[in-house]
Amino acid sequence: MLVPVRSASEDPDPEPAPIEEALVRRAREGDRGAFDRLVGLHLPRVWAVVARIVRHREDAEDVVQETFLTAHRSIADYRGDAAFSTWLHRIAVTRALNHLNRASVRLARASDPIDGDGVPELAASEAKTPLRALESKELLRRLADCLEKLPATWKAVVALRDAEELSYEEIARVLGIELGTVRSRLARARGSLKDCVEGGSR
Question: What pTM does this model have?
Fold first, then answer.
């Protein structure tokens, strides 16, 4: 199964909850068309989370593929104890963290990095002067570099909070950790990012 990767800006209108529940039920019964609709519904958000953690386009595409392949193989085991999106995000984060922990990707890849999920181009186009455009792009480049340096578990919390805007409680359910751990990791990650970005601007 090949999943077409697209940016979060292409997010389709969300399905009403009863329709999604029906799609999940049909997918669990082996309806491939229903699963494909679920992929279309959740792909932009899964991509946003994975891209924030992995930070390199080719790697992120691989992880997204793995996420939906795993979901397709495992959906019969989904019992509805958590929301389908929570279950899917848990798979995505697990796959992304596993990817980062593999020896083959411990060294940063030099090709095709994801710089702010496409934001630099937008920021540059909206800047009022060429100098402002360069300053905006440089700031976002520094932020992307600083994100790269975060521990993988901190990246996951930042991705779920800032890219997906999940509540602390939802993040705790996705990652299977305590609420206090979510708050601690997010605070430490943001503090580290602030120090890193400000240090690079001096």
Answer: 0.67
